[in-house]
Structures are given as structure tokens and as C-alpha cells.
């Protein structure tokens, strides 16, 4: 049976994780010096590797190929394989959303008293831990503060502000950040090479930007797009499949603004409204487009902006003939009316009015 890419290429060691260097370095040192905490709290947005890191940490602690915890689990022993395939009876993954009541935590406390069957530690990985009820958190406190020596807790959450301070203070907290576009591109490129997926580099950048910092989302999107065609995947294919407004559309809009022809500009917007593109999404794209122009104008490199070399050259060519004051003026106007655009019942008409005002230099 075919595995989806995000599962097939799920990291099994710290070194395989893309990014999160501060977390990998700290956990490795803690394991190497045998300074392992009773409880860990992994915080961060979705798709950035919290649960994956929790599994790797569990493998490090329970790998039976070594006489003590290791920073490089073998991946071959029974413990490592059971953790990989989510069938370990000593490493229990619990969904906080569906096991959130006090009775669920009471059962956990009762089971925690018993020693692990095959492994060094009994490890509880609770995902979306912020979903537990107040009573469940209170029931967990004592066990969390003084757990049996064979028990470790790893909590993962996208909303640490919803956790009681009494829980947070008993954990070592690690904050996961969103992955950069370059990190996602690097990851997707490795997977594409292993899978024999032919894809343009600019297309990888488009997928990475759409992922918005979540490597898992990027892998899912690559899987989806690879199923669409066995030919070379182009930027145009990615934009079509994911319904992304092409970057060229924003360049064309700016060109019409600089040309100053009201008729052509309104005709362009009318054609846009007849397409499948959401006017609010187009408006948000305009803000990002002019922000990128402003940053390129101020010599920020392509790597920081998450642009392919080809795309960066397009922006550079545009800013070479545009004054910074003009870019700032347009961007300010768009930001001033952003809330109005989100609230209006007639976004197409408002977009036309704003665009005509942008033609004026009397802002």
C-alpha cells in the first residue's frame, strides 16, 4: 500500500528534522549529559514537527540497542520500530481533544504506576494538551510534579496560552518556529529527488510559500501535485492546482497603475472578477506583492524573502524603475483600507474604487 509522503519521509532522528536547530541542540545535550526532564512542553504552530520531535525523543530514551539513552536511536530495535509504527505499549500517544475528561487522566495516573513492559521508560505523548478540562489538569498536577522514575511526559500544543501556569511551570518548554521558505524548499527537493518527481525550482518555492511555514503542509501539497502529472511540474501547474493567483497578475496590475489608463485598469479588474479568484485574496496578495517590492528595493536578499533567483530578478527589474516613495504610497493606501475590504459586501466594487484612487498622486 502506498504511503503518503509526509508519513513515508517522517524524520526518525534529530538530524533528519529540517530547522529547529535550537531545540535539537538542547535536547541532544540533555540526553548526552543524562539531564532528562520529567515533562516537556512543545509549543508552536501546526505542521512544524512537535509530535515528530516527541516521537524521536521517545526513541532516544527507549532505544534498546544502547544501554542508556542515546542521541542517535538505531531505528531497527523492537522499541524503535514500535514507536515508528505507533504500536508501542510503552510509548502512548494520546489525543488531548478526545481524551480530555478527568476520568481519562485518572486512568492515565493509574496506569503510570506500572513499570514499562519492554522499554526503559513509559512515555506519555499528549497532543493538543490545551484541550484538557480544568479538572483533568488538576488531576494531572501531582503526577506531573512527582512522577514515578520510569515515567516521562511530552505535551504538544498549538495554544500554550490556554494551559494553566501550574502545568507550564512543571515542564521544560520548547517553542517551535515556523519553517523558512528555504528550509521547506530544501525538504521538498530531497523528497522529490527520492521519489523521482520532476519539478521546477520555482514551483517548489511556490509550494513552500503556500505552506506558510508548515513543512508537513508542503509535503502534502507536493504529494497532491505529483499525482496530477507525471511530466515536469511547472509553476503554472502548481498555481492551477492550488488555485493560486499567479505572480504575473500582480506585476500586470502594477504596470497598469504606472501606465495610468483608467479604462485599461478597470477592464483588467473586470476580467479578474470574471475569473475564479477571490477579490479579497487578490487584495491580500497585492499587499504582499508591494511589501516584497519595498524590501527588494532596500536590498533584502532572496533567501530572506523566500524567493527563487528567477523571481527575485523580476522584482529587481521592477524596482529599478520605481521610486521607493511610490511603493510606500501604494502600500500605505492598501493597508489603510484593508479592514474595509474584509467587511464590505461588494469587494469587487471597492477594489475598483481603491485602484482608481491609487492612480491619483494626491494621497
From TrEMBL:
<dbReference type="InterPro" id="IPR003593">
    <property type="entry name" value="AAA+_ATPase"/>
</dbReference>
<keyword id="KW-0548">Nucleotidyltransferase</keyword>
<comment type="subunit">
    <text>DNA polymerase III contains a core (composed of alpha, epsilon and theta chains) that associates with a tau subunit. This core dimerizes to form the POLIII' complex. PolIII' associates with the gamma complex (composed of gamma, delta, delta', psi and chi chains) and with the beta chain to form the complete DNA polymerase III complex.</text>
</comment>
<dbReference type="GO" id="GO:0046872">
    <property type="term" value="F:metal ion binding"/>
</dbReference>
<dbReference type="InterPro" id="IPR012763">
    <property type="entry name" value="DNA_pol_III_sug/sutau_N"/>
</dbReference>
<dbReference type="GO" id="GO:0009360">
    <property type="term" value="C:DNA polymerase III complex"/>
</dbReference>
<comment type="similarity">
    <text>Belongs to the DnaX/STICHEL family.</text>
</comment>
<dbReference type="InterPro" id="IPR008921">
    <property type="entry name" value="DNA_pol3_clamp-load_cplx_C"/>
</dbReference>
<protein>
    <recommendedName>
        <fullName>DNA polymerase III subunit gamma/tau</fullName>
        <ecNumber>2.7.7.7</ecNumber>
    </recommendedName>
</protein>
<dbReference type="GO" id="GO:0006261">
    <property type="term" value="P:DNA-templated DNA replication"/>
</dbReference>
<dbReference type="Pfam" id="PF13177">
    <property type="entry name" value="DNA_pol3_delta2"/>
</dbReference>
<dbReference type="InterPro" id="IPR050238">
    <property type="entry name" value="DNA_Rep/Repair_Clamp_Loader"/>
</dbReference>
<comment type="function">
    <text>DNA polymerase III is a complex, multichain enzyme responsible for most of the replicative synthesis in bacteria. This DNA polymerase also exhibits 3' to 5' exonuclease activity.</text>
</comment>
<keyword id="KW-0239">DNA-directed DNA polymerase</keyword>
<keyword id="KW-0808">Transferase</keyword>
<keyword id="KW-0862">Zinc</keyword>
<dbReference type="GO" id="GO:0003887">
    <property type="term" value="F:DNA-directed DNA polymerase activity"/>
</dbReference>
<keyword id="KW-0547">Nucleotide-binding</keyword>
<feature type="domain" description="AAA+ ATPase">
    <location>
        <begin position="36"/>
        <end position="180"/>
    </location>
</feature>
<dbReference type="InterPro" id="IPR045085">
    <property type="entry name" value="HLD_clamp_pol_III_gamma_tau"/>
</dbReference>
<keyword id="KW-0479">Metal-binding</keyword>
<dbReference type="GO" id="GO:0005524">
    <property type="term" value="F:ATP binding"/>
</dbReference>
<dbReference type="GO" id="GO:0003677">
    <property type="term" value="F:DNA binding"/>
</dbReference>
<keyword id="KW-0235">DNA replication</keyword>
<dbReference type="InterPro" id="IPR005790">
    <property type="entry name" value="DNA_polIII_delta"/>
</dbReference>
<keyword id="KW-0067">ATP-binding</keyword>
<dbReference type="InterPro" id="IPR022754">
    <property type="entry name" value="DNA_pol_III_gamma-3"/>
</dbReference>
<dbReference type="InterPro" id="IPR027417">
    <property type="entry name" value="P-loop_NTPase"/>
</dbReference>
<dbReference type="Pfam" id="PF22608">
    <property type="entry name" value="DNAX_ATPase_lid"/>
</dbReference>
<dbReference type="Pfam" id="PF12169">
    <property type="entry name" value="DNA_pol3_gamma3"/>
</dbReference>
Amino acid at each position: 500500500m502506498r504511503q503518503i509522503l509526509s508519513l513515508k519521509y517522517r524524520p526518525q532522528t534529530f538530524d533528519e528534522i529540517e530547522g529547529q536547530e535550537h531545540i535539537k541542540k538542547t535536547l541532544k545535550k540533555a540526553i548526552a549529559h543524562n539531564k532528562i526532564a520529567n515533562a516537556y512542553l512543545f509549543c508552536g504552530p501546526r505542521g512544524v514537527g512537535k509530535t515528530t520531535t516527541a516521537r524521536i525523543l521517545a526513541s532516544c530514551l527507549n532505544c534498546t540497542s544502547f544501554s542508556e539513552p542515546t542521541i542517535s536511536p538505531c531505528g531497527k530495535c523492537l522499541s524503535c520500530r514500535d514507536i515508528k509504527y505507533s504500536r508501542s505499549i510503552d510509548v502512548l500517544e494520546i489525543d488531548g481533544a478526545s481524551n480530555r475528561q478527568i476520568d481519562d487522566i485518572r486512568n492515565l495516573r493509574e496506569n503510570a504506576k506500572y513499570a514499562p513492559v519492554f522499554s526503559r521508560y513509559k512515555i506519555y505523548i499528549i497532543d493538543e494538551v490545551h484541550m484538557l478540562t480544568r479538572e483533568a489538569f488538576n488531576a494531572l498536577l501531582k503526577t506531573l510534579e512527582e512522577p514515578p522514575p520510569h515515567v516521562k511526559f511530552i505535551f504538544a500544543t498549538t495554544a500554550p496560552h490556554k494551559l494553566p501556569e501550574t502545568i507550564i511551570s512543571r515542564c521544560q518548554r520548547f517553542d517551535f518556529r515556523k519553517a523558512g521558505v528555504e528550509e521547506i524548499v530544501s525538504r521538498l527537493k530531497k523528497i522529490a529527488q527520492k521519489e523521482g518527481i520532476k519539478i521546477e525550482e520555482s514551483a517548489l518555492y511556490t509550494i513552500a510559500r503556500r505552506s506558510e511555514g508548515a513543512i508537513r503542509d508542503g509535503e502534502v501539497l507536493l504529494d497532491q501535485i505529483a499525482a496530477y502529472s507525471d511530466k515536469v511540474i511547472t509553476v503554472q501547474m502548481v498555481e492551477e492546482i492550488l488555485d493560486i493567483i499567479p505572480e504575473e497578475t500582480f506585476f500586470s496590475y502594477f504596470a497598469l497603475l504606472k501606465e495610468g489608463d483608467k479604462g485599461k485598469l478597470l477592464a483588467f479588474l473586470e476580467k479578474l472578477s470574471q475569473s475564479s479568484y477571490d477579490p479579497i485574496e487578490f487584495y491580500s496578495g497585492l499587499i504582499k506583492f508591494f511589501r516584497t517590492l519595498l524590501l527588494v528595493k532596500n536590498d533584502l536578499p532572496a533567501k530572506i524573502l523566500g524567493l527563487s533567483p528567477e523571481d527575485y530578478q523580476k522584482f529587481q527589474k521592477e524596482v529599478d524603475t520605481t521610486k521607493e516613495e511610490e511603493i510606500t504610497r501604494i502600500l500605505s493606501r492598501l493597508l489603510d483600507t484593508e479592514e474595509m475590504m474584509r467587511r464590505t459586501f461588494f469587494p469587487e466594487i471597492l477594489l475598483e474604487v481603491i485602484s482608481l484612487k491609487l492612480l491619483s498622486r494626491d494621497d
